[in-house]
Amino acid sequence: MGEHTPDPLVARIAATAARHGAPAPGERVLALVSGGPDSTLLMHALARTHDGPVIVLTIDHGLRPGAAGECDRVRVAATALGLRVLVERLALEPGPGVQERARDARYARARMIAAREGCTAIAVGHTRTDQAETVLMRLARGTGRTGALGMAPRSGDLVRPLLEVSGEEARAWCAGLGLATAADPSNADPAYTRVRARALLAGLEGLHPGSAGHLAAFADGLRDEQELLLELADGAWDRCAREGGLDGHAVVAEPPAMRRLLARRLLAAAGLAGDALGAAPSWTARPAPRSPAPRWCARAA
User: Is the dihedral of CA 162, 108, 70, 81 positive or negative?
Assistant: First the structure.
């Protein structure tokens, strides 16, 4: 699928994918495409640059009459790109938490289909603008370092090759090629938290131009530092580990920041960790070493 010479924006997306394995070369990918500008750009970028199989999945959640037509347009567009496309229909009910319920149902269906089709990556069209909104919402609600990491280019089976592209760039790219894209009216409904965060971010842009990029870069920097912190925490765990737990006196001897990191790791190992907004805990990628069932063990001097 790499027969086209990518334009600069598509080349940037391909470079992001290559740096982070999002997706990895040759990997079988299931791309979630709603028909909006972000996912439309995602579909075209994968079709032009990814050297492995790409299957498009578009989902009608059953919440809007126009969604069925949007799925049909995605099917036509994906077929024109030479991509196999699957259309799935859900039957969600409107009401409280509908966006979260829709997201959970969408990912659950995508993972079921990915398993069936042998896809090891599920590509989503999250952009740098989405990243800034996510970080802003988590900071406003109250979060620690884990939540401020934002979204990673790759989180398990989820890949986000558009994380270095803004939503404005995606819209301009689609418009420049004359591509028809869908507009979900819920994206303008202030009843939803993310829509209000988007308005707040626009206000910040008026105060400090480039605010969205700065917030996204803040998350990028924290993720870069994470590996160093993981190494330091590994060393502290080794110093404090005793017979399947941690020696309380040894932990107290560590600096306060390291004590917090060790406590987070204990919580993660017990399945209790997580950011205030439910972000994946930073320690899950590296389980507590040498302690299959860690627990807090205070020992007498």
Answer: positive
